[in-house]
Amino acid sequence: MLERLRQLLPPPADPVEPGRPADWPAVERTLGTGLPGDFKAFTELYGSGTVDDFLYLFNPFTAGEDGNLLVEKDRVLAAYRQTRTRFPDRLPRPQFPEPGGLLPWARTDNGDELYWVTDGHPDQWPVALLEARAALQELHRMPVTEFLAALATNQLASRILPDDVLGRPDHRFIPLG
């Protein structure tokens, strides 16, 4: 899927803050879990950046706090925990590190959040998309790179993401920095 995504959404020639295979064990120890292989390969190839200046991908190798997967995980899950405590019926899924818990990997410019559902082996984790204010939720039974490829080909079905993003004539990865 990464090769297909590379054709649809070309990576930068000089990625900003890409990971390296040797860097992942420390990240995974800090998180307390392995991560999906496609996400690691994507981060190594693309580095820090956004899709369409709309979808902000978390990268554990980002130098600052904003957009750093290790920092954003704590921020996003703290807010998720507060909302879930107040509105448990809106957010039935537990948060990471509970079994099957949500682990954030991206956010949109609209404040929507994208998570992995950490159930089973990391390479099998589906994507959960939660609308800002948790009104709508979607489960996409695909890995991150397949989700991004579906977005890049305008084949991603979503009631949460705006039509002008879902139907753009061309999609781009924009490096940060």
The assigned CATH architecture is: 3-Layer(aba) Sandwich
* Lateral arrangement of strands in the main beta sheet: 6-5-4-3-2-1-7
Query: How many distinct beta strands?
Result: 7
Order of helices and strands: HHHEEHEEEEHHE
Assembly of the depicted chains:
single chain
Broad CATH class: Alpha Beta
Low-confidence runs = none
Structural class based on helices, strands and sheet pairing: alpha+beta
β-sheet strand percentage = 15-25%
What form results from the Cα inertia axes? globular
Mean pLDDT: 95
The percent of residues in helical segments reads 25-40%
Give a brief rundown of this model.
The protein is globular, with a radius of gyration of 15 Å.
Q: Notable features of this structure?
A:
SMI1/KNR4-like; single chain; alpha+beta; 7-stranded antiparallel β-sheet; 7 strands; 177 residues
If you had to describe this structure to a student in words, what would you say it looks like?
By secondary structure, this protein is an alpha+beta fold. The relative contact order is 0.19. Strand 5 (127-130) and strand 6 form a beta hairpin. It has a 7-stranded antiparallel sheet. The protein starts with a helix and ends with a strand. The chain has helices at residues 2-8, 24-31, 37-46, 69-86, 144-152, 163-166; strands at residues 49-51, 55-57, 102-108, 113-117, 127-130, 137-140, 173-175. It contains 6 helices and 7 strands; from the N terminus they run αααββαββββααβ. The longest helix is centred in the middle third of the chain and has 18 residues, at 69-86. It has a single domain (2-171), classed as 3-Layer(aba) Sandwich (SMI1/KNR4-like).
